[in-house]
């Protein structure tokens, strides 16, 4: 569907307007406002008929165009001291269009440069990545799961008749992980499970870890393919610690225990 | 230290460096060697790589020196490395351009120029470490002011911000030849 593709490429109302101006081969400084408004509204209608989400900005611009058009149709009233006298109602819009065009051009120029990891390469292509710790790469969920499997396999096999009632909450584990990271900065995935004795506890620790990743409190990296996985503190660590302790406090009051798994 | 020896050491340092090496850093490592001497050796090395059509070139980026492959070899390097580089969409490029030229700049100021919401794009740029918050603007709400990072310079192969392509003046921004006749017809229709 060619129309849809065409509409999708507009970055915003200014972009759409510039496109219409170009298509009509007119100058920005002297926009034929009636024609452009008509075409602009037609484009919006088309977007809507295609069930595209027409962003609010497009509608605001439509109102602006109609307003300008109406002001241009009004005859300049004589005798009335008009503050706007002599001012082209299109002026502000023209200024915005020109300004936007400048940066559109600048963006195109930037895009033409020799981009690192597209045109040129350096020994460490770190610039476009999310600044991971040197030499580490981010891991996928599958890597995490296989690491989890290794931890579980390491468990002693004989504890079949375990009867101790232990209550471990995900939140407790989260606090534990946060504390460990804050004192040590970085910790190996498998070290987190060092003193863990039951399968359940491993699962709870794992869930706590995922929860922290979601909160952006920690970051998980792998040194090399199939290598050891490391966990380190990330930007949100302080916030997460605060949230976890806040929730703990709340629960202390209510006497509930939230996410909890019993043996 | 002999010149050839100095050249050789500099080459090694540049080879192992993780990112662009500043002259200052080189001088720190090469204790006792004058900055002019290092500068001269770098310039010579750069010229030699260029003239010899070598597979690495010495680029001046983000205030330092870095060995980079020439563009002509890009396809081969990409074939080796595999994977597709993250493509930069127009929204990303336009937002970056505005921030680069107008920094320090607030989110609202960027939005005013682009005419659309830029929240998502700004967050993505922050995440990619291409921009950062530099301060808060002293206006109601104390919004963040954004600026570009050294990673931005590295990505776009820029020595520093003064090497950004010059932004065109408003008058220079000319859209397709102003068809004044059409405009005239139009205004006639309108009146």
Question: What's the gist of this structure?
Answer:
The complex is a heterodimer of chains A (263) and B (191). Chain A has 263 residues and is α+β, with helices and mostly antiparallel strands.
What does this structure look like?
The complex is a heterodimer of chains A (263) and B (191). By secondary structure, chain A is an alpha+beta fold. Chain A is 54% helix and 8% strand. In chain A, helix 3 (33-49) runs antiparallel to helix 4, helix 7 packs across helix 9 (199-214) and helix 7 (170-184) runs antiparallel to helix 10. Chain A is elongated. Chain A has a four-stranded antiparallel β-sheet. A two-stranded antiparallel ribbon of chain A has the order 2-6. In chain B, a hairpin with a 2-residue loop joins strand 1 and strand 2. Mean pLDDT of chain B is 87; it is low at 176-191. Chain B has nine helices and five strands, in the order H-H-H-E-E-H-H-E-H-H-E-E-H-H. In chain B, the strands form two sheets. A three-stranded antiparallel β-sheet of chain B has the order 3-5-4. Chain B has 191 residues and is α+β, with helices and mostly antiparallel strands. Chain B is elongated. Classes of the chains: A alpha+beta (263), B alpha+beta (191). The interface between A and B is large, with 62 and 60 residues.
């Amino acid at each position: 569907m060619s129309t849809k593709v065409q509409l999708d490429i507009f970055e915003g109302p200014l972009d759409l307007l510039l496109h219409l101006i170009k298509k009509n081969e007119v100058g920005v400084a002297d926009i034929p406002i009636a024609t452009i408004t008509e075409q602009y509204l037609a484009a919006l209608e088309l977007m809507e008929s295609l069930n595209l989400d027409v962003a609010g900005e497009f509608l605001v611009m439509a109102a602006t165009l109609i307003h300008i058009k109406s002001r241009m149709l009004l005859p300049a009233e004589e005798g009335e001291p008009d503050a706007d006298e002599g001012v082209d109602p299109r002026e502000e819009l023209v200024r915005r269009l020109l300004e936007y065009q400048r940066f559109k051009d600048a963006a195109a120029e930037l895009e033409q440069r020799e981009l690192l990891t597209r045109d040129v390469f350096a020994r460490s292509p770190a610039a476009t990545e999310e600044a991971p710790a040197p030499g580490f790469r981010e891991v996928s969920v599958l890597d995490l799961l296989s690491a989890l499997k290794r931890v579980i396999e390491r468990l002693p096999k004989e504890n079949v008749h375990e009867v101790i009632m232990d209550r471990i909450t995900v939140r407790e584990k989260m606090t534990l992980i946060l504390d460990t990271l804050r004192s040590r900065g970085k910790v190996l995935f498998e070290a987190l499970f060092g003193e863990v004795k039951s399968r359940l506890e491993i699962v709870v620790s794992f869930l706590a870890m995922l929860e922290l990743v979601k909160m952006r409190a920690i970051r998980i990296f792998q040194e090399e393919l199939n290598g050891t996985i490391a966990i380190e503190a990330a930007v949100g660590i302080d916030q997460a610690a605060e949230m976890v302790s806040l929730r703990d406090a709340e629960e202390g009051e209510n006497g509930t225990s939230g996410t909890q798994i019993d043996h | 230290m002999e010149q050839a020896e100095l050249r050789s050491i500099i080459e090694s340092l540049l080879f192992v460096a993780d990112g662009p090496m500043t002259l200052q850093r080189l001088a720190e490592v090469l204790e006792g060697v004058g900055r002019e001497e290092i500068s001269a050796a770098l310039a010579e090395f750069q010229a030699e790589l260029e003239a010899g059509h070598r597979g690495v070139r010495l680029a001046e980026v983000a205030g330092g020196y870095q060995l980079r492959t020439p563009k002509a070899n890009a396809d081969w390097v990409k074939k080796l490395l595999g994977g597709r580089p993250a493509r930069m969409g127009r929204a990303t490029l336009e937002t970056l351009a505005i921030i680069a030229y107008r920094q320090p700049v607030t989110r609202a100021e960027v939005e005013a120029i682009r005419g659309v919401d830029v929240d998502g794009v700004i967050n993505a740029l922050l995440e990619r470490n291409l921009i950062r918050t530099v301060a808060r603007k002293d206006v109601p709400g104390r919004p963040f002011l954004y600026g570009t990072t050294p990673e931005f310079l590295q990505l776009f192969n820029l020595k520093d911000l003064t090497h950004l392509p010059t932004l065109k003046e408003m008058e220079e921004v000319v859209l397709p030849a102003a068809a004044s006749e059409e405009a005239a017809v139009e205004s006639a229709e309108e009146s």
